[in-house]
Amino acid sequence: MTKSRGNDVEAPPAGSAAGAGGAGGGAAEGGARTERLTKVYGTGSTAVRALDGVTVTLPGGRFTAIMGPSGAGKSTLMHCVAGLDAPTSGRVFVGGVDLGGLPDAKLTRLRRERIGFVFQAFNLLPTLTARDNILLPTTLAGAAPDREWFDTVVRTLGLGERLGHRPGQLSGGQQQRVALARALITRPEIVFADEPTGNLDSRTGTEVLALLRGSVDDLGQTVAMVTHDPAAAAHADAVVFLADGKIVDIMDAPTQDRVLDRMRGLGGAA
Ligand SMILES: Nc1ncnc2c1ncn2[C@@H]1O[C@H](COP(=O)(O)OP(=O)(O)OP(=O)(O)O)[C@@H](O)[C@H]1O
Predict the structure, then answer these.
(1) ipTM of this complex > 0.90?
(2) Which domains does the chain possess?
């Protein structure tokens, strides 16, 4: 992909790069995308246009970082694409499904079954073991866990020895691995990671980023990560830069230095 500017830049169509996901369009479409997504908070003189006509693709089987200065609209974009927040106008598709057309119950189900979340604060249940935390999405869905997939995820994330431990008995890095395993257990259409290394020291953070990378390369996952950290963004296949609610750039094959330069240009150096 060439670098492009303006508000209608698109990453390559789903499935055009490494990994899973069919050709763009239709039910086989992987990942997620938005069309002219706008989100306005409040009304009248206090209205804030957090997103202003954002058209972007988060391609299936790819790792995309979302960056931009504070207040640029990163969290709003993630929340709208994840169905946690309703857009003011525009459309969101997850795996080819138009979220705007879904009644609440179906949206809740889609979120539970087709979207995985990894947060800065891990958000594990303290009374449950690592195993039960990982299996929680399937338990909530009343579904039988896929033992083979569970074993694959646990092995890939190096959690085999820790399954009986509660979060309080695990290091920060181990807790984030459990959170990542929980996000992957339903084989979601897309995993959203919101500053996933924000609470980790740099060595542990790098390990978690390598595992996110591995979930894309080895397991065919789609990952979108909001981050302020150029070193973290360098693990992604592409970086989407937001400023004032608009996409101002998309960088393919990012390096830490190029990302840092671009962020400086936006007045939001990390
Ligand atoms: N619930 C809300 N009500 C009113 N305004 C909001 C709300 N949520 C976000 N905003 C505003 O929308 C704009 C975008 O916010 P958002 O949190 O998406 O930015 P961000 O890029 O994630 O910022 P940060 O890096 O600081 O987390 C900001 O001006 C923010 O103040």
Answers:
(1) yes
(2) 31-265 (3.40.50.300)
